[in-house]
Amino acid sequence: MNVHNIIISRTDSIGDVVLTLPLAGIIKEHYPNCKLYFLGKTYTEAVIKLSKHVDEFLNWDKIQQSENPVNEFKKLRADTIIHVFPNKQIAQMAKQAQIPNRIGTLGRFFHITTCNKKVKFSRKKSDLHEAQLNTKLLQPIGVSHDFSLNGLIEHYGLITSEPLSEELGRLVDKTKFNLILHPKSKGSAKEWGLNNFSELIKILPKEKFKIFVSGTKEEADLINNQLPFEQENVVSLLGKLTLQEYISFINETDGLIAASTGPLHIAAALGKVAIGLYSPKKPIHPGRWQPLGKKASALVYDENCEKCKKGNDCDCISKISANTIVDLLMKNNLT
User: Fold this and answer.
1) Of 23, 34, 63, 86, which one has the greatest count of Cβ atoms within 10 A?
2) How far, in Å, are 27, 33, 168, 281, 293 from residue 22 at the CA level?
3) pLDDT tens digit string along 197-253?
C-alpha cells in the first residue's frame, strides 16, 4: 500500500489523545518519509504538538467553521485517514474528499458506508489497554504487531515542551520533591475524594515535599475550602494555568497524583512519577486506562471488588488509603 500523507483523527479529550500519540511514532517507524497529520480540537493542540512524530496539527474546530470543510481535507492530498475516535461528520467528509484509504472500526454503523478499510474489534469487550487497541487500526496499512505497554511508551516521541515562565519556575523547589495533586476530573472519572487528598497533604513530610494543587477555575470553588492551603508547603494553581503552561509546569516537577485524567497521562508520558487512582470496574479499570510511562503506576483498593465486578455503582476508590500512596513514594526512593 502506498502511504504518503496520513491523518490520525482523534477529536476527544486530553487523556485519549495522549494515549493515541504512540500511533504517530509507530507510523513514522514504518513509513519514515510520510507526512503525518493529527486532527484534534483546539483544546488538545498543545498536547498533540508535544510529539516529534506529528508533522502538522489540524484544528477540527476551525475546519468545521470554514466555508468548505470538505475542501480543507482535499487540500491535504491525504491518502489515508485513521478514525481512532469515531466521528460521523469527519467520516462523511473524508469520504466526500475522496481520501483513498479510510480506516475505522467495523462496530460503528456509519463506518459501513464511510470507511473502506474496516477493522473488527470491540473496545468494550477487550482486555487490552486503550493504547494497544488503537494500534489495531494500523492493520490495513501493514502494521499488525502486538505491542507491549513498554513498547508503546518508547513510541511517544515527546519533545521538550515550551520553557516555563520565570514566575512559575520560581515556585519549583529544587531541594524537595515537587508533587502535583489533581483532585478533580470534570466528571470524566471516578474520584478519590477531597477528604483523602487533604489527609495525604497532611501526612506527607513537609521538609521533603512541595505540593501543588491543580484544577480548573470552575473546580476552584469546590476545592478551595476543602484542602489545607494554609500549610506553607502547599501552593494553589487552581484556574491559573493554560494547558501549555500546565504541561511545562508538569515537566519541571517530579510527580503527579490524580484519578484517570488527562494530566495524569501527560505526566506519565513526560516520564514523571504518575500515580493513578482507579476503580477496578470495567471499562474504566486500569487495565484499559492506566497511565503509560516509565515511572507510572495505578492503584485500586480491591481489584476483586464484587460490586465493581457486577457493574454496580461503587465508591471503593475512596478506600485507597493516603498511607498507601506515601508508601509507594517512599518505596521507589522518590523522596
Assistant:
1) 23
2) 9, 17, 29, 26, 12
3) 999 999 999 999 999 999 999 999 889 889 999 999 999 999 999 999 999 999 999
Q: How far is the first Cα of the chain from the last one, in angstroms, to the nearest whole number?
A: 51
Give Cα 40 to chain centroid, integer Å.
13
The answer to whether 57 and 40 are in contact (CB under 8 A) is yes
Question: Whole-angstrom Cα distance, residue 94 to residue 100?
Answer: 9
Per-state percent for the chain, helix, strand, coil, to nearest 5: 40, 15, 45
Phi (first) and psi of residue 9, to 5 degrees: -110, 115
For residue 329, report the phi and psi dihedrals to the nearest 5 degrees.
-65, -45
Q: Which domains does the chain have, with CATH numbers?
A: 5-153 (3.40.50.2000), 173-331 (3.40.50.2000)
Sheet with 296-299, strands from edge to edge, namely: 234-236, 209-213, 177-182, 255-258, 273-277, 296-299
Grid cell for residue 181? 495533586
Give the model confidence (pLDDT) of 302-312 as tens digits. 999 999 989 89
CA dist 70 and 323 (Å) reads 54
Whole-number Å distance between alpha carbons of 42 and 45: 5
User: Alpha-carbon distance 184 to 201, whole Å?
Assistant: 15
CA distance 334 to 287: 25
